[in-house]
Amino acid sequence: MKFSEIIYQSFLTIKQNGARTLITCCIIGFGIMSLVGILTAIDGLKTYINKDFSSMGANTFKIRNRGMAINIGVMKLAPKIFKPITYLEAKKFKSLFSNEYPVDIQVISNYTGLLKYQDVKSNPNVMIFGVDEDYLEVESYSIFKGRNFSFSEMTLAKQVCVLGNDVALKLFGQSLNGIGEDIIIDGRRFQVIGILESKGSSMITSDNFALIPVTNSKFFYNSQKASFVLGVKLEDQNKMESAIELAKSKMRLARKLNPRDENNFDIMKSDSFSELLVENLSYATIGGFVIGLVTLLGAAIGLMNIMLVSVTERTREIGTLKAIGARSSDILKQFLIEAIVICQLGGILGVILGIIIGNIVSLMIGGTFIIPWLWMLLGVLFCFIVGLVSGIYPALKAARQDPIEALRFE
Predict the structure, then answer these.
(1) Contacts (Cβ under 8 Å, ≥6 apart) of 74
(2) Distances 383 to 16, 82, 120 between C-alpha atoms, Å
């Protein structure tokens, strides 16, 4: 038989057994769907993380007294924690470094702040930050209404505040007419001088916060014992590494370290956290890959079983083909082509379903629509391998049929 005739005969058999072909395609399709869907969703999560952390600004870094650690899986690495950065050390660093780049001083005063305006109360989950007058510039916040803190308000520890958009909506409603109003923050009276533009809520950003002068935070929240954080903003991202090296030397001076002493502070770039998260997501990718392979293994076993049943049902057909001149290799090729074609049809179905489901999950978590070319090609390749592996034994069994015994089969 010519190869073209073998292919024609294979497609004719597939068409004649439509119900069986559909069921088999669905078995393979669901296996590929799980593989492509899971990996597409993970890629969507990665794009979301990168997009989310880019809102911090790619040209900023922070100086803290502790490193970062994300524990995913069984391996847990504790972050390095150094002695707190005091307010005096923060002020010293700013005086040494602010001529080079904008620097802000910030501290978390309270994680569970409660705000009240007349009879309206916020939930007791408002973050209260103590900041200086450069905070908004360094952290890339824009004023929606009102103004920023002034230097004199910082120096004199005036009881004024700037509110995040969510908090202002809760207290003042859609009109946001709260400028000049007095509110209560954790039992103390502050005047609202500004309301910020919304940045939206995500895994790292939120508008549910209030800013007060860092000088007030020191007294009202016992922040003398807290560790202050320094933020630095660059105009040119390409100068990041040189700026970090300069910041290290200035911070060592502020902390009064000897030349032989190691740095007792950590520098976190704006994209460091996202890189660490994406790196840890590789475990999730491996897990998704393994789950998809196990599902495909089940699909391969199902396909082999169906092909073996098909060989038994078509025993007389095999005998007839051999009787009219078909060789064993022709029968082998026909059954292999059938298995591979059925797998590829199921693979196409699985890739389409996987892209749809994976992107639904991606969009639900805030990611973007992506076309996973790598996983699509991988799915097609796996379908070919599954078809080859699942079809080889039934094809060999069909090719080894004795034509006389096959024609006698009932």
Answers:
(1) none
(2) 22, 53, 61
Note whether 97 and 219 are within 8 A (CB): no
Give the integer Cα–Cα distance in Å for 168 and 310.
70
CA–CA dist 181, 167 (Å, integer): 14
| Cα atoms in the 13 Å half-sphere on the side-chain side of 79 | 17
**Cα 309 to the center of its chain, rounded Å:** 44
> What is the 8-class DSSP label of residue 382?
H
Q: Has this prediction a pTM greater than 0.70? A: no
CA gap 365, 346 in Å, rounded: 28
Residue 335, Cβ neighbours under 10 Å: how many?
A: 27
Is 383 within 8 Å of 66 (Cβ atoms)?
Answer: no
Nearest CA among 262, 397, 245, 387 for reference residue 328: 397
The 10 Å Cβ neighbour count of residue 290 is 12
Residues 6+ apart with CB under 8 A from 317: none
Cα-Cα-Cα-Cα dihedral of 147, 152, 153, 156, to 10°?
180
Q: Write out the two tokens for 313.
A: 């049902």
Q: What share of the chain is helix, strand, coil (3-state, %, to 5)?
A: 55, 15, 30
Q: What are phi and psi of 376, to 5 degrees?
A: -65, -45
Query: For the chain, which residues make up each domain, given as ranges?
Result: 3-52+276-408, 60-269
Burial 38-49 (b: 16+ CB within 10 A, else e): bbbbbbbbbbbb
User: How many angstroms separate the Cα of 158 from the Cα of each of 109, 117, 154, 207?
Assistant: 16, 19, 7, 23
Contacts of 179 (CB under 8 A, 6+ apart): 145, 146, 192, 193, 194, 195
pLDDT digits (tens, 9 = 90+) for 202-253: 555 678 999 999 988 888 887 567 889 999 988 877 788 899 999 999 999 9
133: its two tokens: 């007058």
Helix residue ranges per DSSP H, 160-271: 165-172, 214-220, 240-254
Q: Which stretches of the chain drop beneath a pLDDT of 70?
A: 1-6, 8-11, 13-14, 16-18, 49-58, 67-79, 201-205, 223-224, 270-281, 365-366, 402-410
Only one residue has tokens 């082509």, namely 337
